[in-house]
Design a protein that fits this description.
With 85 residues, this protein is mostly beta strands. The chain is built from no helices and seven strands. The protein has strands at 2-5, 8-13, 16-27, 30-33, 44-50, 56-63, 79-80. The chain has a seven-stranded antiparallel sheet with strand order 1-2-3-4-5-6-7, with no helix packed on it.
Length: 85
């Protein structure tokens, strides 16, 4: 999930504490996830897909570097909004 942290947006995966990190604005609706565990070498583009009302409907991810381990199949994720806290 994505939440507002003290220093901006943070992405966090509930099933892997390693995949937690701030989102750095890249361009338009795309950010870069910079995982706090730098040993992962798996930073990723995070693009917010907006609906007609301007609300986030989904997120797409793509590996930042072609050298990233292919087992981080970010492009296969279908991240959808499920509700409000």
């Amino acid at each position: 999930f994505v939440e507002h942290g003290d220093d901006g947006l943070v992405m966090r995966f509930g099933r892997s504490d390693l995949l937690t990190g701030p989102l750095e604005h890249f361009q338009y609706d795309t950010f870069i996830a910079r995982w706090r565990d730098r040993s992962l070498h798996a930073d990723a583009y995070v693009s917010f897909i907006l609906g007609a009302d301007g609300e986030v409907e989904a997120i797409r991810m793509k590996m930042l570097s072609p050298d990233t381990d292919f087992s981080y199949d970010f492009h296969d994720l279908d991240l959808r909004r499920v509700g409000e806290d």
